[in-house]
Structure formats: C-alpha cells, structure tokens
User: Fold these one by one.
Assistant:
Number 1:
Amino acid sequence: MSLSPEILLVEDEPAILNLLEFTLADKGFGLRKAMNALQARSAIDAKLPDLVILDWMLPGESGVQFARKLRADPRTRALPVIILTAKAEEPDKVMGLESGADDYITKPFSPRELIARVNALLRRRTPELGGERLTVGPLVLDTARHDVRVNDQVIALGAAEFKLLRFLMAHPERVFSRGRLLDQVWGDHAYIEERTVDVHVLRLRKALAEHNAEHLVQTVRGVGYRMTGND
Ligand code: CA
C-alpha cells in the first residue's frame, strides 16, 4: 500500500498524457492512466483514486459528462476532479455547477502550475493527504514525516495502520462504516473483505495501547469506527 496520493489521469492525447505522467511521477504521486471515459470508469470501479485529472475533449463520453456521473454516484461524489481544457473552451463553462469539477487547468499548462493546483485541491478536499499535522487528543500525526507520536514518543505502525489512522484523525468524531473505510483508505471496496478493516483496527489499537491511547479509536456497534479526542 502506497502512502503517496494516487492520481488517475484521463487523457486521449499521448503527448499530454506523457507530460502529466512525467510531471506528477517526479513529485512522487502514484499514477494510473486511462484514455477515455470507459477506461476511467473501470479504473475507478477497481480502486478509488485520490484525485482525477480529466480531459474535457475525449473520444466518446466527454470529460464533463463523465465528471457529472462521478458526482451523481455516492461512492465518487467527493472525489476531487480537475478538468483539463483547451484554450478555446470557456472557464466559466467548465466551472459551472453542472460540470462537477473542483478546478480546471488550461492547456498548454506549466508543470509548476499543475503541481500547485493538484496540491491545493488535495489539501482542500483530503486533509489526510495535505502534508500537515493532525492532532487528536494526545496523538500528533505528521503527514510529511510519516510519523505519529504521543508525548513525543513515536508509535510504531505498519503502512496500512498509518494510513487508517491518518484518515480517522483527519475526520475526528465521525463514524465510518467498514465499506467506507475500505474505499477511502484502501481505495477498494470490491475486492477486499470488510473484516480486513477489523484486523487493521485491532493492530492499530494494539500499537496505541502501548501508549495508553487505544480508547481514541472507538467501535460503534453495528455501524463502524470513530476517532475521538473526548474520553
Ligand atoms: Ca483530448
């Protein structure tokens, strides 16, 4: 399991797809590629990415039509989407309520602008990926350093437990079902069994217990799990 955000690139022009890939891979993002809406759909069905960069003009279903469908589906409603447009297309059309995009980038784009837009959107929409400090009760998670501490002592966690904790700490006091956690943390609700979540919660609690902090991850019977800073 990768800790870096994963981006799905949907673009039919190979030269632009390569430029996107080169620019983003250089910054450590995980990448998957699709050349039309159909491929993008099966990529998303298999595994939820952290962000989608979507070309407007695709053969077959357009990027805007596809973005609208993503917004209509509860599983992908909150998925951050950046639309790529050619100069001739009007920004206000792209950003209109009906398009479903969070942001847009006009081609030709500079690599620096692309990275800045992607990072800004990730910070805004997925706080657990934003390169910040998250604090819940005595726990402090540093996303840039990839560590979690209690009273300045580092808690030893596996990659999956770290990612799970990071997600829960970014959304404290909210209850998440196992299915939702699989989607948001593992990016996959179709191929991984829900009891996988229980296994990792158990490991996470065991690690937290060594620092007397296991009570921060609560089981909500019949619903799922919640992170709480309140004792
Ligand atoms: Ca195109």
Note: Residues 84 and 109 are 9 Å apart (CA to CA).
Number 2:
Amino acid sequence: MNIVILAAGQGKRMHSNLPKVLHPLAGKALVAHVIDTARLLKPQTLCLVYGHGGEALQQTIVAPDLRWALQNPQHGTGHAVMQALPHLGDAPTTLILYGDVPLIQAATLERLLHAARDALAILTVELADPTGYGRIVRDAAGEVLRIVEQRDASAEERAIHEINTGIIALPTTRLAEWLSRLSNDNAQGEYYLTDIVGMAVEAGVTIRTAQPDEAWEVLGVNSKVQLAELERVAQRRIAERLLEQGVRLADPARLDVRGELRCGRDVFIDVNCVFEGEVVLEEAVEIASTCVIKNARIGAGSRVAPFSHIEDAVVGPDGVIGPFARLRPGTELAAGVHIGNFVELKNSRFAANSKANHLAYVGDAIVGSRVNIGAGTITCNYDGANKFKTVIEDDAFIGSDTQLVAPVTVGRGATLGAGTTLTKDAPPDALTISRAKQVTIPGWKRPQKPKK
Ligand code: UD1
Ligand code: CA
C-alpha cells in the first residue's frame, strides 16, 4: 500500500514556534511515532504532507525513503491528499494517517487494511461526546452513506456518536478522480477528504468500518493539554511493557522513558527516574530514586544511588555510583568501580576496583586499577584554552585535597600526600607531597573585640 501522513496543519493551539508534529512524546517527535508505525506495514511509498516548518521537519526527520509533499496554503484534508498524489505508487490501497495522532498501532491499521482489500475502509469510534468530529451517517440497514463534518451537520446528524477518526484506507485507482471532484462548498470552505465517502457509495464501492483496539490510539494532539495526556498514556504503556518483561518498578506511574530502555533480568527501578536516549541496564541493576540517565550502559549488578546523573557513559559490572554522582560524557568505568557523592567525572576511564568516593572532579583522566582518589581531589585539566590529560597508574593513592595539574602522571603504586599540588610526575611506589611546613606560634593571642 501507499501511506500518506497528513501533517500540514499549523497547530495554533500549541502556542509554540515548534511545528506541532515535532513536539516530543516519550522523547520522540509526534510524527516520528507515526512514521515508525507506518514502516511496520512495509508501504510501497510513504509520503508526508507538510505545510509549516519544512526546514525544521527535514532536519529532525531523517528518512531517506520518505517523500515530502508541500501543502501551502492549507485548504483541507482533501486538498492535502491531492498534494501527495504525484508521489504515490501504484499499490492498490492508499492509507491516510495523521501526523498528530501518534499512538495509532500497527495491529489496528492491519485490520483496517484487511477491511479495505476490496473496499473503502474508515477507522471509526463511538464517543460519548462526539463534538467537533465528522459523524458517520448510516442508512436504515446500517450501511455507511457518507461522513458529515460537525459544522455542516444537522441537529439529527450531530446526535450520532460514531465518529470519523480521520484514518482511512482507499482504493488508489479511484483516488485521483474522486479528489478532482471535491468541492469546497461547505461551512469551512475546505476540500474535505471525507466527501470521498459519499462518492464511493455512489460508485457502488463497498464501505467498511473498523475500530481501534484501544481508544487512546486515535487521540490527536491539538494542545499542550492533549500532549500531556498522551504522554501519560505512552509512559503507562512503556511501564507495562517493562513490568511484563520482569523489571521491578517501585511505581509504574512514576517513571519516564524518553527513548529506549532495555533491561536485563531482575532490574529494579525506584520512583522518579528519567531515562533518555538509549539506555541499557544489565542484569540485576538497581537504580534508586530520582536518577537521570541518558545514553548509557549500566553493567550487571551495579547500584546507582539516589540523585545521580549519568550521560553518555558506561558503568561496568558491580559498580556503586552515587548518591549525587555525576558521570558526564566519555566516562567509562570498568568492573567494581565506586563513585560517591559529589564526584564529577568527564571523559575519564577508570580500570577495575578504583574508587573516588567523595567530592572530586576527574576530567580527561586515565585511571588504573585499585586506585583510591581521596576527597577533594581535582584534576586541573584546563588552562583556560587547552585541555590536558592526567594519568594515574594502578594502585596509586591520591590523598585528600590534591590538585593534579595536567598534563601529569602518577606512577604505579605512588602515594600523594594530602593537600599536594602536583605539577610534575609522581614516581611509582614513593610518597610525593607538596605542603607548606607546619608551624606553631606559641603565646599567640586572638584579636579581641574592643571593650565598651
Ligand atoms: C478531520 C476530519 C473529521 C474527523 C477529524 C478527526 C475532514 C474534512 N474532517 O477533521 O471528519 O472527525 O479529522 O480528528 O477530513 N491537515 C492537513 N492539511 C489541511 C488540513 C488538515 O495536512 O489542509 C492535517 C492536519 O495537520 C491534521 C489532519 O489533517 O493532522 C486533520 O486536520 P484537522 O484540521 O485536525 O481535522 P478536522 O478538520 O478537525
Ligand atoms: Ca480543520
């Protein structure tokens, strides 16, 4: 089949400079959800009708197989499909989707397409409050006659609860002819795609309807309110999928996944964590409350304590991270590494079983195995213009409150005394210390406040 995604509408009610269909839902643009679902159906051609923010759209949606049809100005859904016509292949069926109806599922569309194999098929739902939607008008025998828009409907027609979701599958061969016969003689002065249904009935084409598996599949986004509602729907589904896979979630309603989260067995995630981009939690990983983890892999058996922030980083197996740890891009930790509170790592590699447990900044560093980095250690990696490397070899011990002025190397097994400002390499297996001599001034008196 061909698939046409309508996305030219402006989205005024979003009150945003971002084109409506680029607003993110679960970390992915609305229209990208639709494109991904469309792809599951293996269409012969996939065409996006756009009207606003073409440049922004083409930057965000990287899809070499996607055909772009500009509709400017926008004269209605029928007019939108006309713009797609030159891009369509000769597949017998053309499926129309909306770029702002992001959660439509492939299983529902497959059923609709099955209904459309020798017919025109409309995806409909019964709504308690059908206000605003096109109504499905049927005859006494229950056969579909036409679709009437809210604004053109009689009082009797407005009482109909079965509505047009807008998702329709049509016979491609008739499409061009029907579209050419559309008129804009209606309440909105638009070319309605829905008028094609009446034409199909006249031409003796069978009309079938199908319903979505879930009501939320056909919900559209016209405002931030609706976007927020659909975000909750999307998050609940993600949480349910994780639970079904065996992930233990402290509360499925307090988890946000904005991208792809893959989990091994016996993973536990406490409340209020945010996962962005591609995150992998290997077997038996525990993520405590209020962690933000983006594009990262956390190795088997590792524990991440509360309020940790991890981005573009790899944590090896059996790590202990946080609370309040910050792993910035380029952090790579081997097995059994401990990174404690208020420790910031950037572009640094730690080999197995090394520790930085308190209050430290380690940037542009290569750290060996079994290294202990004391509280208050800072790699001075930046001179205001250039960045330099720090190398700390296996079994080194870095005393508290040490500055490592890069480029500098701490040799294997070296010890740095507390408070050292290291500006030259520290040789292996020796104590290196830079510290002003301690003096005591006997009989020294504290200054006194003047007596009143
Ligand atoms: C349309 C249907 C209505 C249905 C409703 C479901 C028509 C005439 N009416 O109504 O029966 O109940 O959807 O939500 O089809 N779009 C364009 N170009 C345009 C106009 C719209 O690309 O010129 C796109 C929009 O971006 C949107 C979709 O088509 O994705 C629907 O447009 P919208 O204005 O929301 O549809 P309605 O007129 O409300
Ligand atoms: Ca409209």
Note: The chain has a mean pLDDT of 97.
